[in-house]
Amino acid sequence: MIFSKTLNNWYSINKRDLPWRQTKDPYYIWLSEIILQQTQVAQGLPYYVRFTEEFPSVFHLANAQESEVLKLWQGLGYYSRARNLHTTAKHVANQLNGEFPNNYKDLLKLKGIGDYTASAMASICFNKPEAVVDGNVYRVLARYFSIDTPINSSKGVKEFKQLAQELINKKDPATFNQAIMEFGATQCKPQSPDCTICPFVKSCIAFNTNRINELPVKIKSAKAKKKYFNFLVFVDNNERTILEQRHGKGIWQNLYQFPLIETSKSCDFKTLNNLAKKHSLLNGHTFELSLYNDQDIVHKLSHQHLHTKFWIVKVNNALPNAIPKNEIHTYAVPILIGNFIESFNF
Prior knowledge:
42% of the residues lie in helices and 13% in strands. A hairpin with a 3-residue loop joins strand 7 (297-300) and strand 8 (304-315). The mean pLDDT is 93. It is of the alpha+beta class. It has two domains: 2-214, Endonuclease III, domain 1 (Orthogonal Bundle); 225-344, Nucleoside Triphosphate Pyrophosphohydrolase, CATH 3.90.79. The N and C termini lie far apart (59 Å). Its cofactor is [4Fe-4S] cluster. Its EC number is 3.2.2.31.
């Protein structure tokens, strides 16, 4: 088909030299795809390099401690990806003798692997004609064919998947999938794409009807909830502090954080001081409280905005279960906590 041929010609000239494009090894392709979910290449590339150096095979990753994986992942966000990565590595190494399934259906059964990753692995590693559909592909197809169906609706997901499946080059699905993703990422960009150098400029319906900025259509998500976090940064007379591991389901499951007091609104000094007095770690001891950041640090997640204050709590007695300050960098923490640790010069 003309679309596929034009796309492949563009890709042969414009593709970026990326390490995961030098292999068809399922482990490396899987690793790159998981890292690049909801992450741009520029940010994800250093993580891919570090992961492949630290864990050169699925067996190395499977044998790692979860804390090691989370620490190496620190800064990428969406930590469930890292936990699922580790779970799947252990399953593949221990139950499948280190061999990833060679087809879409069985790949889809692995934890953390959805339609997009299963399609990418099946096509790139095993030459199966399974079309990938990610944000870049949605944008290219919505503009080229001028499709108004919202990409985040069940109807849209089905419609775009079917269209991509019709367009894929069944003789060389790996190149087609990588080409259309690359085209969306570097040419048909979300904002102000340079349509004058686009190989599809004459046949793109959105360009010829002046609809580039309107497409793709997306249903607006619910407004993010506000939460107010107050982290107590304890420092005792032995230069030790306290980190607590988060348990249960949640965005930061198994990561470490400073003791937290959550409030219904942003706290002033008097209110937080009274709340701190009741904290079990202080247990009636005297302490000196000071606010590190006068303005709330707003950490934006997909479904909630965390308005955060860090309170320094100096105590004269030795804290129970405390850790030396110089060991704090060895713990896996959310990027919000990590940024504070760097700025506070622990």
